[in-house]
Automatic annotation (TrEMBL), chains A, B:
Its EC number is 1.1.2.4. Keywords: FAD, Flavoprotein, Oxidoreductase, Transit peptide. The keyword Oxidoreductase applies. InterPro entries: FAD-bd_oxidored_4_C, FAD-bd_PCMH, FAD-bd_PCMH-like_sf, FAD-bd_PCMH_sub2, FAD-linked_Oxase-like_C, Oxid_FAD_bind_N, Vanillyl_alc_oxidase_C-sub2. Pfam families: FAD-oxidase_C, FAD_binding_4. Its cofactor is FAD. It is an enzyme of class 1 (oxidoreductase). Belongs to the FAD-binding oxidoreductase/transferase type 4 family. It comes from Halorientalis brevis. The keyword Transmembrane helix does not apply. This is D-lactate dehydrogenase (cytochrome). Residues 450-474 are annotated as: Disordered.
Length: 474, 474
């Protein structure tokens, strides 16, 4: 054991603490379980059940110099929630209550361990929904989504998680409890602590309660798929639709190889071609909007633009949502390296996709591309034999080149998965040294002992550099 | 002279520095020009023309312990941009270029001194507009709007300024230049420095360039006014419309006395009754949305719901936009005390308006109420004889009581005007001591010498408490 964590039993009682190997090991890797997603096994796992529990653990850990890494569903892809330095894994899945629903204000109060789709379940009877849920909404928690500022298929119309968080209660590293934001829909009172906490990946505070904004379920929802002769046509069509102001609620791009993988995994019969999945939300005029979109797609040589009934739409969205799983299982030998995403200004969407595909062709590798194309967001990976170092090296090279290209095009190294351990090396390239230094100053200000999720986000916080006491033994 | 500011001539050359009394005095008060809005006369005024100029001044001032207060159009209402400690007033109005328009990406790059409506002028030819402009968009700068996280009549549909800022370049207190945010429409890369800078009122950095997002001008724009028997009916109607999900682009409440003042000031003939001004934006089905709104208004006993042609709408919005001026000039003896705003959850809108009006009646005072009601936002003031201390005291009492009530109802002490000097005393009541301490830690982290706009936002930063060197003489 690295850090002495016996004090946790005093904080929480035995039922909410484990020093057992299986509990500890299950908190050492995230869903990617690759190099970025595999951390150090924590010395203990705690399951707080209240804000007071979170505060008690943090205060005691901070006093003792013991790292605390918040964890929930473990569905991150960049190692965001796995320990870099052992210490305590704080599992928030037992704080999973819906606390209050206020339909008149379009608001819901939840604890961090509530699953994404449970929010929709709690409010759909009121005719409301939570628009920014990621594709993984059924298997990931709102706390994790807030920590990574997640977004999803409907972000193109409705925005990202940050846009739907009104107020947060969070515990800072020293155990103090802050409230950030307001239940009023707008405020210019003081610094925007709320937006600073959203996307800070548990390095600045642990969210213990969130007030989320909701939206009325639109009266008209229709969707379908459009098949294009080439991936470039599909990308140009998405760009043109967005540029032309088509009011689309989802506009996803799926390349031919990803469609094939989805067919293999789910038994669907998507055509072997690049395509977009689209959905339109409106109270009036949804058909006019679809017609508008069709006109634009036709100018990009769309082969078929087929509207689907509700059941067929569900199947399409399931295929899209489960692409990540499909990639993992498609080939027994070739596995996706670094399943991640970049985002660029929408005018550069065709360019970044062309670039990724050309790199794949150049190196004779399969590089599946899909994603929330309407936001300029591209998910890509390279299929490699993980036992072949040369293969992995080529995959790494493609991965890095696409990230660097996205930044060069005015984009970001991570659209929705956060920085964690996987994207640390790009932070300075994207933001510049002075901006990263400003971020680091904020970290030092709110967590001077580097207690919360140490080692994440910042490039030079390599192992052994924590300012505080190191583990008592190894 | 307080601080020795001769060094400024070396930084910028003589043409961009003034030590003259009239320049200095014109930078000592904002538009409210009341107790909150009247600061200390600065020792010098500078007009930087580039990021390098801003950086040079800040680096030199920070080294010397001289305060720098950013200033632009001077249209704040809470003293946000007037010096608390003399030193340098940094006037950004000469940095007023539109740098780039990228219609394909719905983006524009501007310098901070660009006037709000100049943004619309620059992009309307592309069929685009900048939705979150405040009513004062024609007389205030984008830099000031960003500093206060302003919002406006269309915020109910489109959100506030922060929602439309993609990327900022800003100079920190030590002269370092940071880039915050991304030109990609979504990112989860690093801490959200951008949202921290927006609304920080020039206390954390000076914005020198902003990339703003734009929206397509809707194909259908229609509006009108609805007259109600009582103010309570009008407020309940607004609440019901918002709760019911009416897709309204503007929904403003104006009470009878405010309408009378507008008539006096502008020569309009608004009826002597409480009313709402509404506007609907859509590409399809605007008439159906108007009909939906009418049904709801009818259930609240609306007397007349009259659609207006374009010319008549322009007159209505002019009346609404210029209410602040109308209040100032309506009575030669009675002047508005603390023209400010609060915002509450929409379900509490009727309650906060009733409360303000009841206080006015109780004290026999005129308390005009109007505002962006669809956001739960209320502008209110008390008309007082400023030469009568008892009258002023009653006005203060009403002002404070409404702010405290708004906070009690889950709202905020300032919806869109920032904290400045006028709302400092409510920061802790609204956010709690630990949250305010966290904000203060952020201020110390980015501006350890308290150079940038010292004395603002935080309640206990009273005069004489700056940690750095005090003025050389007084």
């Amino acid at each position: 054991m690295g850090y002495d964590c016996e004090f946790l039993t005093d904080c929480l009682g035995e039922g909410n603490v484990s020093f057992g190997e299986s509990a500890r090991e299950s908190h050492a890797a995230d869903w990617a379980a690759d190099e970025a997603g595999t951390g150090v096994t924590p010395d203990a796992v705690v399951w707080p059940e209240s804000t007071d529990d979170v505060s008690a653990v943090l205060e005691a850990a901070n006093d003792r110099g013991v790292p605390v890494t918040p964890y929930a569903a473990g569905t991150s892809l960049e190692g965001n929630a796995v320990p870099e330095y052992a210490g305590i894994s704080m599992d928030l899945t037992r704080m999973n209550d819906v606390l209050d629903v206020r339909p008149d204000d379009f608001q819901i109060d939840v604890q961090p361990g509530v699953m994404g789709t449970a929010i929709d379940d709690a409010v759909s009877g009121e005719g409301l929904f939570f628009p920014p849920l990621p594709s993984s909404g059924g298997i990931s928690t709102i706390g994790g989504m807030i920590a990574n500022d997640a977004s999803g298929m409907q972000t193109v119309k409705y925005g990202e998680i940050a846009d739907w968080v009104l107020e947060l209660e969070a515990v800072l590293a020293d155990g103090s409890v802050v409230t950030a934001g307001s239940k009023a829909v707008k405020t210019s009172s003081g610094y925007n602590l709320k937006e600073l906490l959203v996307g800070s990946e548990g390095t600045l505070g642990v969210v213990t309660r969130a007030t989320l904004e909701l939206e009325g379920i639109p009266q008209q929802i229709r969707g379908g798929r459009a098949i294009f002769p080439t991936l470039d046509d599909a990308a140009e069509a998405v760009f043109d639709a967005v540029r032309s102001g088509v009011d689309v609620a989802k506009i996803e791009l799926v390349d031919a190889i990803s469609a094939e993988m989805a067919n293999d995994y789910l038994g669907t019969d998507l055509p072997d071609a690049p395509m977009t999945f689209v959905e339109f939300h409106a109270n009036h005029g949804v058909q006019e909007e679809i017609d508008f979109c069709r006109t634009i797609f036709e100018s990009h040589d769309v082969e078929r633009f087929e509207l689907a009934d509700e059941e067929a739409m569900d199947e399409l969205w399931k295929a899209r949502s489960e692409l990540a799983f499909a990639l993992q299982t498609w080939d027994p030998d070739l596995k996706p390296l670094h399943p991640g995403d970049v985002t660029v200004p929408i005018s550069e969407l065709p360019a970044i996709i062309r670039y990724a595909k050309e790199l794949g062709a150049e190196h004779d590798k399969i590089v599946p591309c899909f994603g929330h194309a309407g936001d300029g967001n591209v998910h890509y990976t390279t299929l490699v034999d993980r036992d072949d170092p040369d293969d992995v090296a080529v995959g790494e090279q493609i991965y890095e080149a696409v990230v660097e290209k996205a930044i060069e095009l005015g984009g970001t190294c991570t659209g929705e998965h956060g920085v964690g351990r996987g994207k640390r090396q790009y932070l300075e390239l994207e933001h510049g040294a002075d901006s990263v230094e400003a971020m680091r100053a904020l970290k030092r200000a709110l967590d001077p002992r580097d207690t919360l999720n140490p080692g994440k986000i910042f490039p030079e916080t390599a192992k052994g550099e924590r300012v505080q006491a190191e583990p008592t033994d190894d």
